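Trying the structure run again after the queue cleared.
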Amino acid sequence: MTSVSAHGVVTGGDRYYTQFIMPIYQYDCSGCDQRVEVFFRSVKAVDKPTCPECSSTKLKRVMSRFARVRSDAQQLDDLDIDQQLGRLDGKSEADFARWTRRMGNELGEDLGADFRDMADRADAGADPIERVDPAHTLKFRVNKKREEAAGDGGVD
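Done. Tokens:
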């Protein structure tokens, strides 16, 4: 079992090394009504934060945003196709390009590249055949990618 001391020393098994833990916390400041980030040099220094904008000590700690790292297979499993299709506004080439570009940015590397390519073709004035039935396009490509991932044993 690995543990981290308040001083940043990590121990566990045959591991023993120093890790510098310098937390950054977010607070809502009552003094200036702003959300601020406060950097601390160590975990011990977190006791008495002050606002970097107005120097007030009337701060309320808030939950910071965080991201969850998921594999391409997990992203595909979590994908709600009907919800994604509901985000397609309109039927023009420009609407299709915006939707496919957004899908390309949200999907994994390989599948995302397919959608970004469709967006580029639509932006260039081509009328991609995939625009005729975006539901079929999305379902077909997602299911194909799921099958490929299952054939790889789920390894990305």
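The first helix runs from residue 72 to 78. Worth checking whether this holds up in the mutant runs.
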